[in-house]
Amino acid sequence: METSGIPVDDRVRLTHGILQRTADDAGVDVLHIKGPALHPDLLQHQRRDDVSLPIPRHSTDADILVRPSHLERFQEALRHEGWRMTADFIAGSAFGHAANYWHEILGYCDVHRRFPGMEIDPEVSFDLLWAGREPLEIAHIACSTPSLQAQRLMILLHAARSGRTDHPDKVRAWDEGSEADRDAVRRLAGELRAEVALAAATGHLEDYRGDRHYDLWRQFSTGDTSRWHEWRARVRAAGSPAETARVVLRALRLNQAHLRMDLGHDLTRADVLRGYRDRVLRAARELLGRRSR
Fold first, then answer.
1. Residue 247's pLDDT is what?
2. Would strands 62-66 and 107-112 be described as parallel, antiparallel, or unpaired?
3. What is the 3-class SS of the chain, one letter each residue?
4. 1-146 is classed in which CATH architecture?
5. 225 pLDDT band (50/70/90 cuts)?
6. What's the rounded mean pLDDT across residues 206-214?
7. Is pLDDT at 177 greater than 70 in this prediction?
8. Taking Cα atoms as reference points, which of 147, 142, 180, 174 lies closest to residue 158?
9. What is the value of pTM for the model shown?
10. Mind listing the pLDDT tens digit for each residue in 37-77?
11. How open is the CA angle 107-53-146, to the nearest 5 degrees?
């Protein structure tokens, strides 16, 4: 898909501003996260003329967190503004947390209904983050971002999914933070029931070996690419029989959104059939490989 000739960084900032205007018009609460919304204290810095200057955060799309009870209204507003969903919440990730949208001029944005790792009710989680929100002007539009310590926690949870113990975000948000910063992040993680994900980010996941979310965060924080391990972990993390059944059904479904992005065109019936065939073959190879060890 092609977008306009606007430089990527400028386009992402413009997208944040336009999404905020869309939210304002629809009466929707949104928090801007990652990319140009990241607090300056969490950015990398460079020295120039003996002055430490922040390096702007590079991003290829705009990320926003929407109040869950406002989500349907916001999605309707996006459709009216020419945005097209390219991956729904279920197809987006193992956590079902974000839907991906495309605009022919602005490119991509990710609309989050929850933040992975925060296990408290998403509406309550949003209330806590919203209560500590801070103002930030992006593309000359007044936006809201989570507080510094909330952002510190959020990029740590995001880093925990990277498969790297030395992720730069972990270094800046945790290692280079003060003990007071780390205590504040721990307290916030407790309020949001994000202790397991935070432990995965900071190298203390073994403290939560008995938790039902342990396997899932071990899967992502270690970079384990086994689909068998992932689905087993997702089943274990399910909080109820009904959620377990939904996870199993998702495991059987081809992720057509990802396949469409990989192929770069709308799917034909043959594409879908080949996708299911390849999915079955990959699963069979992995299971056979496990049995041979």
1. 56
2. parallel
3. CCCCCCCHHHHHHHHHHHHHHHHHHHCCCEEEECHHHCCHHHCCEEEECCEEEECCCCCCCEEEEECHHHHHHHHHHHHHCCCEEEECHHHHCCCCCEEEEEECCCEEEEEECCCCCCCCCHHHHHHHHHHCCEEEEECCEEEEECCHHHHHHHHHHHHCCCCCCCCHHHHHHHHCCCHHHHHHHHHHHHHCCCHHHHHHHHCCHHHHCCCCCHHHHHHHHCCCCCHHHHHHHHHHHCCCHHHHHHHHHHHHCCCHHHHHHHHCCCCCHHHHHHHHHHHHHHHHHHHHHHHHC
4. 2-Layer Sandwich (3.30)
5. confident
6. 93
7. yes
8. 174
9. 0.81
10. 999 999 876 666 666 666 667 788 999 999 999 999 999 99
11. 55
How long a stretch of residues is the chain? 293
What six digits make up the tokens of 264?
């770069």
Place of tokens 């801007």: 32
165, two tokens:
């113990």
For residue 13 the two structure tokens come to 């900032």
Contact predicate 189/195, CB 8 Å: yes
β-strand partners of 65? 31, 112
Q: What is the pLDDT of residue 7?
A: 87
